[in-house]
Each structure stands twice: as structure tokens, then as C-alpha cells.
Amino acid sequence: MANAVRTNAAQTMSVRQRLLSVAKQLADEGAHYLWGGDGEIPSAQNLSLFAPTVLSFDTNTNLAFCAAWKKVENKPFVCSGRCLAVANGHNFLVPFPEQDPRLAAFIARYASASQTNWGTELTPRKVLGSGAGEPVDYNVKPPIHLNGQVVFGEGCDDTKHFDCYGFVNWIVQQVCGVTITRGTSIPLLKNPSGDPIGTYLAPNDPGLPADLLIYPGHIAFAIGSPATSDSSVTYWLAQAEASIYGVTYGKPRSDTPTQRVRLSDSTLLNKH
Questions:
Q1: What is the pTM of this model?
Q2: CATH 3.90.1720 in the chain, residues?
Q3: CATH 2.30.29 fits 2-29+162-268, yes or no
Q4: What value does the mean pLDDT of the chain take?
């Protein structure tokens, strides 16, 4: 019996590490943040996932080039393509596009170009979205809000797009074959075995890799918590973080999660 318990614990820890490995791979690939995103990939075969192209100095109402978009509750959200994560510390926000020489040069060169096969080159777009889905940098006080601003961000073609919930769900689906339905408390959801997908952790539980951390308006995987008394770090996260950074792996967050959820053994081992 003891050997079976040890074997099961080793198996579940292996799956936990696999969850984090997939999360890190997405971060390394440069996956983008998009409200409502569940892993969609704009490409030459999925042109409907690109925001309409409007390159103009006029009102720039829908300015976008090679930018993914999605409608959530009849509201359009446009990806900003990790506009600060790839900028090497430079600010690529463009609040006055009609006065920006980069935008003028871009329009002159690419106004008639295709939106596909764009790669990672920075392109202009006006970030759309508001309310609960407003792109936010969670690590800055006060948070950076991009709604309505023009930014230079990466092209979105052949790039996966997630919001925080879509990121967690996509990874759990890939690794465990279990779907975490949006809008329902995870402990109330059942996996194919009929067990809860996960359970809430007690405050004194030290946590395990790939536990789910829930914050106001955000969900992420825990990579780990510090073994020291460093009060500036509560957890390191794997997450679809925010519109300006996309998917990140290993960033610290200092505030305490509202809830922590541990995926059940039967969820972790559903495909194993």
C-alpha cells in the first residue's frame, strides 16, 4: 500500500511538472494575451481572427495591422502584441500616432501589405477593450491600462492567444484532458471520473507546483513560493499576464491570492 501511495505521488508530481513545462514553452514561444482567448492562432487560413486593417492618420478608430481580435459579449478586444515585453526597456506606446514618425514610415511602407506571414516585427494597432477585460499590467502600481491607446506591438500571425483563464484551461486540457469551464467555481466542476476538478487549499498548506492561484480578475499557476522570508515575493507565477507582456513564466507577485486550488489526483492522472 505504501508503495502505491509513493507511486501515485510521483505520478501526480510528474504531471504537475508537465503542466508547468507546457506553460513555460508557451511563454518561450511568445504567446500573446487577448481577452477571451483560448489558444486561437491567427494565420493565412484564419483571416477572420485578424482585426480589420485601417492605416490612417485620421481618427484611427480601428487602427490595426496584423493584430488578433476577439468579440466578447459583443465588445471587440484587440491584441497589443506584448508591446513592452519586446521593447528592450523602451516605451512603445504611441499616444499621438499622427505625430509619430515610426507610424508614418510604417504606413508608407506597408499600407498595401498582407497581414499574414508577418513574424514578430512591431506593428501599430489601437488597443480596444474595457470593463472586466481591460488589459492590465498587474505588476505596476497604479496598473497600466491600454484601452483606446495606439501601441506598437508584435504581429499576431501564427501566435497563440490567451486570457488568464483560457491559458490555464488550455494547458490542463492538453496535459490532463480535462476542461475547466469558465464562470464556475473550480471545486464545483467535475472531471471525467466524477470527482471535483480541484479543491480549495487551507491557508497553512505550503502549496505544490501547478496549484492554481486566484486573484481578483486573474488566475495563474504557481511555480513555487520562496523558501526564504523575502516579503516582497509571495509566489512566482506562470500566467497569461497582461496585454503588454503576454504569457510570462517566473514573474513574482507579492499580494496574497484570494483562493488557492489544488487539482485533484484524478484530474492530474486522467490521461495517465
A1: 0.89
A2: 2-29+162-268
A3: no
A4: 84
